[in-house]
Amino acid sequence: MPLSAPVLxxxxxxxxxxxxxxxxxxxxxxxxxxxxxxxxxxxxxQASATLxxxxxxxxxxxxxxxxxxxxxxxxxxxxxxTGLRTACSVTQGLALGLDRxxxxxxxxxxxxxxxxxxxxxxxxxxxxxxxxxxxxxxELYVGAFVWDGGAWxxxxxxxxxxxxxxxxxxAPDGVLAAGLRWAGNAAHAYPEVLAxxxxxxxxxxxxxxxxxxxxxxxxxxxxxxxxxxxLDAALALPRYVRDKVAQTTAERQAIKA
Length: 257
What we know:
This protein has helices at about 45-60, 80-100, 105-120, 165-170, 185-190, 195-200, 205-210, 215-225, 250-255, and strands spanning about 5-10, 15-25, 35-40, 70-75, 100-105, 130-135, 140-145, 150-160, 180-185. By secondary structure, it is α/β, with parallel strands linked by helices. It has two domains: about 5-105 and about 210-235, ATPase, nucleotide binding domain (Nucleotidyltransferase, domain 5), CATH 3.30.420.40; about 120-210, Nucleotidyltransferase, domain 5 (2-Layer Sandwich), CATH 3.30.420. The protein has a five-stranded mixed β-sheet with strand order 3-2-1-4-5, sandwiched between helices. It has a four-stranded mixed β-sheet with strand order 8-7-6-9. The relative contact order is 0.19. The model has no long low-confidence stretch (mean pLDDT about 90).
């Protein structure tokens, strides 16, 4: 059975940021329990070069070494192809070298958890949150989660939506459906296209700033650890939602026109 007070290293490079955390201590309750040290660094093309030194710095700052880790958790996506491969390969390499288990986390759920941690008293059992993340190429990664009072449960697995889909589905007359809540970086990426669902957002500015940050990743990783929800490193895989990785020249020119 898993210990209740593990040392967990968590990371996510599915977006243009490197989000990571070192969680040490009590794994009961929210991520605020125990000790959590977080990182938020520029990612993108730099992620593969800066991720390992950044993780080593987390350990060094806590007076720990790699062998002190009990497991390594990573955001499996959906997200940028290169970012997902970076997070997965680094996690697998470390876990195999250290003979440690891996925890696979849903990046969209981490965004939901970040939004919840920003206002924990605003959530009751049964509340639903949609997560909308920029997927580039005029598409969104979308998933929905229900808060059961202690954890998030996925009710809409990650899928791709066209930019027009949220407004068509939730605000066909220009008014956001009553009670609907959503979070993620989509509003920042496409403010004009999503204007119909941004203005009426109930959760305020914090929702559009929600991201798979270290504290949220640590919270999800601790929950997974307590459930015994770990994997052999060889079984850790990115969570791909699309097969197409780029637009053709003709498609880019058509969008520009």
